[in-house]
Recover the amino acids of this structure.
């Protein structure tokens, strides 16, 4: 390899859009001063990915797969 290939430089930009839920409550202090209280809301609870029972996957009007989940998956 030529020496320049070992020391190549590249500009890379990575953008990640993040969001976080916050609750803002407005109130008035005894002296009349306005106040904003910010509280971070926890991530929502997501139950197990599958419930128990019989499932069928339809591809249009046709069944593509069927299965039975006997007990809860954790």
């Amino acid at each position: 390899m030529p020496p320049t290939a070992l020391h190549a430089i590249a500009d890379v930009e990575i953008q990640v859009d993040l969001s976080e839920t916050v609750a803002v409550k407005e109130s008035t202090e005894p002296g009349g001063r306005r106040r904003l209280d910010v509280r971070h809301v926890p991530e929502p609870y997501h139950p197990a990915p599958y419930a128990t029972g019989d499932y069928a996957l339809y591809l249009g009007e046709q069944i593509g797969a069927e299965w039975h989940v006997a007990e809860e998956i954790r």
